[in-house]
Every structure is written in structure tokens, then in C-alpha cells.
Amino acid sequence: MTDVATLWSYLATTPLIWLTTTIVAYLVADGVARKLGHPPWANPVLLSVLFIAPVLWLTHTDYTTYFEGAQFIHFLLGPATVALALPLWDHRETIRSSVAPILLALVVGSIVAAGSAILLARAFGLPMEVLLSLAPKSTTAPVALGISEAIGGLPALTAVLVILTGIIGAITVTPMMNMLRISDWRARGFAVGVAAHGIGTARAFQVNPVAGAYAGIAMALNALLTSLIVPVLVRWLV
Amino acid sequence: MLQTLGFLLGFQLLGEIAVRGLGWAIPGPVLGLALLVVLLSGFPALAERFRPTTSVILANLSFLFVPAGVGVIGNLDVLSDDGLALLVILILSTVLSMLATVGTFIGVRRLTERQAP
Q1: DSSP A198-227
Q2: Same domain membership, residue B59 and residue B2
Q3: How far apart are CA B37 and CA A83, in angstroms?
Q4: What is A33-86 written as a DSSP string?
Q5: Residues 94-113 of B with CB under 8 A from A
Q6: Same-domain pairing of B48 and B74
Q7: What is the pTM of this model?
Q8: CA within 20 to 30 Å of B27's CA: A57, A60, A93, B37, which one?
Q9: Which B positions 35-94 lie with beta carbon below 8 A of chain A?
């Protein structure tokens, strides 16, 4: 028994165990999703989290300890964002021919994403700092946290709302677009990229490469636009 | 693979340096993305060399969000008493935003395609 305890106290201090747990959880989640034919509700991020959370709870591991291992994965979000240059480059011809729909849909979608969040938060009578934390929820996490801080929100709350938004977008996009009989992969991908940033983009790549490319463009452009739009909308709508 | 990783990290670094230097409100990797597209337009042959690595990264993009997702579980108490209201707002606002985006995209595409000679 002491051996197990010694082994555990050693492992608990290295990043290895939580790095491995994260990879195994994702492989299981992705395997399940694949076997089921990637249904929207079997979101691999959500499933992985549901596998890992009880393990952390049972081993009394706090998030800081977990993140010492998981940070190596989290870090790769940066180079992965840069890698979105490739699909953008591959689809440059169709992108060039749809500049007008891209730019107008970006402006409308970005305003609706932030504006509807602000108005709904007011209708629900949420406290001001919660409302301000909610406004930038559709943009990628580093941008959203910066905006939240600048306008007087709570960055920790914004971080949670951004991830939840991504998962909600990734789960709802396919059934919604199918119900509306929208078959244009450019439009479908672009919509989920504007509304649900990287997690939505990951879903789009799962469904169709053109949708993935357009989601990537939408996410990158919305990172630019949201930081300009949110402070203005807050001044108008609050 | 290492060469591609070197380019990706290098362009992220360039992006980080530039946004900090210029005081821009965009993340370094997003500017790095734009700079890499500029590089590809100058050297299109590089795309073939990058593709094996970048396609693996992008095919597993969901994986990279798992640590942040686990962070949400650990931080759910920040939602405090507003949890249910926030969930309803997030669902409505996300769906509205997707509807507005897809509607505008398709509407404008139809208009511009009709005008094209």
C-alpha cells in the first residue's frame, strides 16, 4: 500500500499523468464520437471533459495541478491558429469571389452575437459585471478576456462563458443548418466561426473541409471586429 | 514536421511581437496566421511542405480545447446564482448569431452573384 502511495505522490508531482489522462480521455471521446458517426451532441471536447472531471474529483486534484500537465496541449492552440493559414490559402479563389458576403455576414453576425447577449442579459436582470463579462463571449478566448477586462467585466467568468459558447455552437450548428436546409458549406462554416470561435471551427473541420476553412476565416476576422464593436455596443445598449 | 512546427511557432512569435509593439487588440497567433498567408502568397510551394503537419493539427483541433474545457468544470462556481439564466442566454444568443450570419451570407451571395456578368 505504501508503494502505491509513494508512486502516486511521485506521479502527482509530474506533468506526465495529466498529460496522458487528457490524451487518453480525448482518444476515447473521439473514438466514441467516430463510432456513432460524429453526431452533434457527442462533442469530443464536452465528452473529454466529462471523462476527466470525475478523475480529478476522485483523486482530489485541483485545476492548477491538472494544468501543469495539460498546459502543453493548451499551448498548441497558438500554432494551431497560425496553421489555419493553410486552409485559407487553399481556398483563396473561392474566398476572393465571396468577399462581399464574408464582410457583411461578419459585421451582422458579430453585432448580433454581442448585442443579443447584452439585451438578453438586461431582460433577465443580470448584474452589470455579469452582463459585461457576457458581451464578448463569441470571440476567441484571449481576445474575449482582454475585452472583458477593459470594459469592467470579470475575465474568469468570461473564460467560462466563451468555452460554453463554443460547445453550444458546435452542438447546435449541424441540426440547425440541416433543419433550415442550408447546403452552402461556406455559409455554414462562416456562421459557426463567427458565433462559436475555435470550438465551432473544430466542429466545422469535422464536418467538411470548406466549412472548416470558412469557420477559420470567420474566427480570425471576428477576433478583430469584436474588440472594436463590443465597447460601442455596451455604450449604446447598457 | 519539425520544419513546419518551426514556421508555425516562428510566425506566432512574429505575431506576438508585432501586436505588442503596435499595441493592437488582436491575439498574436491571429496576426501570425495573416503573416503566414502573406508568406504563402510569395512562396506557394511551401504549402505542400506544411500540409502534412497542419492537416494533422487541424484535424485534432478539438483536442487542444480540452484543458480549457476542464477549466470550466473547475470554475463553474463563478456562474453563481445566474447559471441557468446564463445558459439560456448563451444558447439563444449563439443560435441568433448563427442565423443572422448565415442569412446575411446567403442573401449577399445571391445579390452579388446575380449582378455578376
Answers
A1: HHHHHHHHHH-HHHHHHHHHHHHHHHHHHH
A2: yes
A3: 10
A4: HHHTT--TTS-HHHHHHHHHHHHHHHTT--HHHHHHHHHHHHHTHHHHHHHTHH
A5: 94-102, 104-106, 108-109, 112
A6: no
A7: 0.89
A8: A93
A9: 36-37, 40-41, 47, 50-51, 53-55, 57-59, 61-76, 78-79, 82, 85-94
**B57-76 per-position pLDDT tens digit:** 998 899 999 998 898 887 88
CB contact (8 A) between residue A157 and residue B97: no
pLDDT at position B23 is: 84
Q: How many domains does chain B have?
A: 2
Rg (CA), chain B: 20
- Structure ipTM: 0.91
Dihedral, CA of residue A59, residue A71, residue B1 and residue B50, to nearest 10: 130
CB atoms within 10 A of CB A177: 23
Q: How many residues does chain A have?
A: 238
What are the C-alpha distances in Å from B83 to residues B12, B80, B107?
35, 6, 36
Contacts of A141 in chain B (CB under 8 A): 68
Q: Are A160 and B72 in contact (CB under 8 A)?
A: yes
Residues B16 and B60 grouped into a single domain: yes
pLDDT on residue A205: 93
Domain membership of residue B75 as a residue range: 68-117
